[in-house]
């Protein structure tokens, strides 16, 4: 008999994790990381938000036990997240909710719930999307298909193609949508696109799974949730997955939640029970520290205002980087090819560069983008931005200006 692991096929490494490793191994001190999807401030650091530090100090001073909570996590955290994300758009009695270790596990648990309820459902994922959507659907064992999302030539949402592809979905299929700040494209549907999408999902009996990972990075906390809240008010059934990683800067503390809107209030209890069981068999109790930090911030008007102001500043910084990079690229390349950057929202855009150009950016200029040319605009600083524009112009073969 061979050894247990002798025939283990190698795991397909995640492209983002691979890029992090390559960047860490690159000895050039002036290398620039626009690959990894974390917020960075002007000094290139991913800061602990001030309200988070204050909430942590308060928790440390006052917490008297670290005994287990329920399998769903802290009810106070779940109520705060529900209000933050869904506002007043849904009847609370129709909701089941559990905390999870981050948004990734929220997606995992939401899709596990789908598989338990409807194993034949197909999960529809935008092309392009965050690679973990497809990976999680595969891990859960659900069939998946992709729908076209991006008009790459213009950097905008290809609404007609998206709607045409989703016409091919069967009633009861699940469609993953990103609430705002689409990763990796940066292109969000317009209000008209959302309305057409909602009409199609409704007409064809499709279930929206809305992934909320960048609340506050688009236009504002409430503005970013407006399309989701309209869906939640209209649809009998809807799944929402929430990540606290970006909006609270709590990446490594693993803060997330699944909110499952049920057709009728009587279904919420069995769904709640199933979600709790899914938690129990995956990790038992969800982590509490980050969730408690979020609940503390959202429950205290002073901390909340401070958090919101800092998040507003982060959003404004990324938006300013977009404008500055588009201007620098216009001047370095002599074209308006990158003007679409200013119309995008959130931290990411696809720059539309070819694989050879991305490889050259890395090898010749120490500039790291993802293989699909996703750039994290938060990774730019005043010092690196002109270098980035010059490097991109150079690999495009455009004469550099003096
Ligand atoms: C679109 C999207 N959804 C969900 C997540 C989940 O993040 P986490 O598991 O770190 O909370 C991410 C993180 O990059 C994301 O980009």
Features:
single chain; 45% helix; alpha/beta; 13 helices; Aspartate Aminotransferase, domain 2; Aspartate Aminotransferase, domain 1; 2 domains; 13 strands; binds pyridoxal-5'-phosphate
Please give a quick description of this structure.
The protein is of the alpha/beta class.
Envelope shape? globular
| Euclidean distance between termini CA atoms | 68 Å
**CATH superfamily placement of the largest domain:** Type I PLP-dependent aspartate aminotransferase-like (Major domain)
Rounded to an integer, what's the Rg over CA atoms?
A: 22 Å
Bin the helical content. Answer: 40-55%
Task: Please describe what this structure looks like.
- The chain has 402 residues and is α/β, with parallel strands linked by helices.
- It has two domains: 15-47 and 307-395, Alpha-Beta Complex (Aspartate Aminotransferase, domain 1); 68-299, 3-Layer(aba) Sandwich (Aspartate Aminotransferase, domain 2), CATH 3.40.640.
- It has helices at residues 15-25, 50-62, 75-86, 102-117, 131-140, 159-166, 191-204, 221-234, 265-282, 289-298, 301-333, 355-365, 384-395, and strands spanning 32-33, 95-100, 122-127, 143-148, 150-151, 156-157, 174-178, 207-212, 238-243, 256-261, 348-350, 367-368, 374-376.
- Strand 7 (174-178), helix 7 (191-204) and strand 8 form a beta-alpha-beta unit.
- Helix 4 (102-117) packs across helix 9.
- The model has no long low-confidence stretch (mean pLDDT 96).
- The structure holds pyridoxal-5'-phosphate (PLP).
- Pyridoxal-5'-phosphate (PLP) binds at residues 37, 102-104, 130, 178, 183, 211, 213, 243, 245, 251, 256.
